[in-house]
Design goal:
Elements (H helix, E strand, L loop, with lengths): L8 E2 L2 H11 L9 E3 L7 E3 L15 E2 L2 H10 L1 H13 L8 H28 L13 H25 L4 H12 L4 H28 L16 E3 L2 E3 L12 E3 L7 H7 L1 E3 L11 H19 L4 H8 L6 H4 L6 H30 L2 H12 L4 H15 L8 H14 L9 H5 E5 L16 E5 L14 H48 L3 H5 L2 H44 L3 H18 L14 H16 L2 H31 L4 H5 L7 H28 L2 H8 L1
Parallel strand pairs: 1-4
Antiparallel strand pairs: 2-3, 5-6, 7-8, 9-10
Length: 705
């Protein structure tokens, strides 16, 4: 038989313990235990010292399998340290303040691990050796490092989970992992979450008090459609999300206060911490926008500075340490939100109401756009009727703007030389109806709008371009009604003038014996028909105007002003104005949405109303024709009788001239005028009935009541 190896001696356990402690620091290992690179077994006994399966060995010393298994468990700590360190120093690590805090907490855990290892190394070298001293064994080392190993496993899992998500989203991931049944796991992740959330709360404070988004410098000074990041200026398109912070700045089509307020910022739901959902998140968004708005759109930052001074909890989230509990931070944050919501809201309302003269602007809109100032309306119609009665292609906004300014000065609205109101009231060409034809006149597209002197003034958030366009459409329909009313009045005066001409003929009948009845023929009957036509049109226009003014505009405007007086923030102002404008737009049939009725459509109502008002404004045409006919006939008879009187006075009798009396009004002429009037009434009545048919029953009853 061959020579047999003598039994190998077992490697001293203390040497194995020292090698394991060195490996637990994430090193390459020692003489007996070294880094193997395996995922399940990162460290293992050097191959030369492993016990052979058949009991043999290549060395005189050997590590039994039982000790080798203990070494595997102990050195998992070193594998976790290497794994965490590689994640912390990796090239693809996330760059955010929250991830920096997470990495700092991980380093803290590793340092805590090193302290435990240092204590164990001291014991392995006999430090503190005295009575009752027990040598450090592999099993004792495993027990000592068991809690550390568990903590590092939890930390490594958390670090892997947050590697690819943004800062705000990382907090949600940690919170989800903390929902665990094991109290040790909950405690470990809670400590990590508390450290990670501290900078996020500081970011929230900067947003709430300064209107600043993390990583964005001089946000309130940026140009149109840009935001400043740590890497320079870039565009932020709607829909882009980084997951770093719960508030995202979006690019708006125009650098306008209203667009900035309504669409400039949004909540990034992925980056919202779970404890800041629902109303609280909306409050955070709102109060930060208030600070941002004060800083960007007010002439100076004094109002904002005054507001920050009044915030008692400002700065507290920045001053607290990492050991401050999340519950305490949430309490301070809630109080800061409520304070800022009140203080910043009051300051912003003060700027818009008082410094920007919001109520004066609204009063001007009511007077000159919604036409509540009657003398201005009457003067402007007198000045501009001729220029607005031309075809649309001859429409001159420049000329009409001059008429507007003259009407404002004539009615005493402005002093000569004062450009304030003159620059606010602007002629607006409205293309809201789709049936505009080449034969339409200027009145069909004319309206008045309101423009602020500065497009970026704080008050522009209320009087935004979309609202001004709506006001222009409302103004256009109101001007059509006012002109129809004006023409109805002129028509009455013209019919009265015709009656006076007929009375002149009757007086000639008594004086000279002419037959007035045969001269005028069927004119009195036509007069009665035209009076009835004018009265019906006037009744429709006046009833409709009365409904719009007293049941739509006045109640909506009164409620809007009362709501604005008690509004607590800018959103309250905007909601009050939007609600009033929506009600007025619906009541004047200029809204774009379909009504609840299946057969009613506001677009159809608006079109038929326009057509009915167009027919109403043409009522003067047959009256003017009749007036001209009657006037010419009466004037001809007056001239003829004057010649007769002159012949009698001179004693010269020109029988041919005297006997050739002027002709009477022909039946054909009267019939033609009546035919045009009947046709006009047919157009008016058809569109009026269609207009009423397209209205909801309740609105129809209110107008006809």
């Amino acid at each position: 038989m061959g020579a047999q190896h003598p039994p190998a001696a077992v490697v001293p356990e203390l040497l194995l313990v020292r090698d394991c402690l060195h490996c637990c620091q994430g090193g390459l290992g020692g003489r007996y235990v070294q880094y193997s690179g395996g995922e399940a077994v990162p460290y293992d006994v050097v191959e030369e010292y492993r016990e052979d399966v058949e009991g043999g060995t290549k060395r005189d010393s050997v590590v039994p399998l039982s000790q080798r298994q203990l070494i595997w468990k102990i050195t998992k700590v070193g594998g976790l340290v290497r794994r965490i360190t590689e994640c912390l120093n990796g090239e693809h690590k996330k760059d955010s303040i929250v991830h920096d805090a997470i990495r700092s907490a991980c380093h803290k855990e590793i340092r805590s691990c090193y302290r435990v290892i240092a204590v164990l190394e001291g014991q392995s070298h006999g430090v503190g050796k005295g009575e009752g001293y027990q040598a450090l064994t592999l099993r004792r080392t495993l027990v000592w490092l068991d809690e550390t190993r568990q903590r590092l496993e939890i930390v490594a899992s958390c670090l892997d989970a947050v590697q690819t998500v943004g800062g705000g989203e990382a907090l949600n991931v940690l919170y989800s992992l903390s929902q665990h049944g094991d109290s040790f796991v909950v405690q470990t992740i809670a400590s990590l979450l508390n450290s990670a959330s501290a900078p996020y709360f500081m970011q929230l404070e900067q947003w709430i008090t300064h209107g600043v988004i993390p990583g964005v410098a001089n946000l309130h000074q940026l140009g149109r459609g840009q935001m400043m990041s740590s890497r320079g200026v870039k565009d932020i398109m709607p829909g882009q999300r980084g997951g770093e912070f719960m508030i995202t700045k979006l690019r708006t089509p125009k650098d306008h206060p209203y667009d900035d307020w309504k669409d400039g910022f949004t909540l990034d739901k992925a980056a919202q911490p779970s404890c800041m959902r629902g109303p609280m998140a909306n409050d955070i968004l709102s109060v930060g926008k208030q600070a941002y708005f004060l800083r960007k759109y007010c002439d100076d930052e004094q109002e904002w500075n005054d507001a920050v001074v009044q915030l008692q909890h400002a700065g507290q989230l920045t001053r607290v340490g990492s050991d401050f509990s999340a519950e305490q931070r949430m309490s301070i944050l809630s109080q800061l939100i409520q304070e800022s919501k009140q203080v910043m809201g009051e300051k912003l309302l003060h700027v818009i109401r008082e410094k920007e003269h919001m109520f004066e602007h609204l009063e001007n809109i009511k007077r000159y756009v919604l036409l509540s100032k009657g003398d201005f309306v009457r003067i402007f119609i007198d000045l501009a009727d001729e220029d607005l009665s031309v075809p649309v292609e001859s429409y001159s906004e420049y000329t009409l703007q001059g008429h507007v300014e003259k009407a404002l000065q004539t009615c005493g609205a402005v002093d000569i030389g004062d450009r304030g109101l003159l620059d606010n009231i602007k002629v607006q060409r409205v293309q809201e109806h789709q049936y505009t034809a080449a034969t339409d006149i200027g009145w069909n597209v004319f309206g008045l709008g309101y423009a602020l002197a500065r497009e970026d003034s704080p008050a522009a958030v209320l009087l935004d371009p979309a609202s001004m366009n709506t006001y222009g459409e409302i103004s256009s329909i109101l001007w059509s009604m006012k002109r129809a009313e004006h023409i109805s009045g002129l028509t009455w005066h013209r019919l009265d003038a015709i009656a006076r001409d007929l009375n002149r003929l009757r007086s000639m009948e008594r004086e000279y014996g002419i037959d007035a009845a045969s001269i005028v023929g069927a004119v009195p009957l036509l007069m009665r028909y035209l009076h009835a036509l004018r009265a019906e049109i006037s009744q429709f226009v006046n009833t409709l105007q009365s409904h719009i003014v007293y049941r739509v505009i006045e109640p909506a405007w009164k409620k809007m002003l009362s709501d604005m007086m008690v509004a607590k923030d800018l959103d309250g102002l905007l909601e009050s104005h939007a609600a009033a404008l929506k009600k007025i737009s619906k009541g004047t049939f200029t809204d774009r949405k379909k009504t609840k009725s299946v057969t009613s459509d506001s677009n159809e109502s608006r079109a038929t109303l326009r057509a009915a008002l167009g027919a109403a404004m043409d009522v003067h045409i047959p009256v003017e024709n009749l007036s001209a006919t009657v006037g010419d006939t009466v004037d001809a008879h007056c001239r003829h009788l004057a010649k007769v009187r002159e012949s009698e006075r001179l004693g010269i009798w020109n029988e041919d001239e005297v006997r050739q009396s002027p002709p009477s009004i022909s039946e054909e002429t009267v019939e033609e005028i009546k035919r045009s009037a009947v046709q006009l009434y047919g157009i008016f009545s058809r569109h009026r009935d269609m207009f009423f048919a397209n209205l909801p029953a309740s609105m129809r009853e209110n107008i006809c009541r």
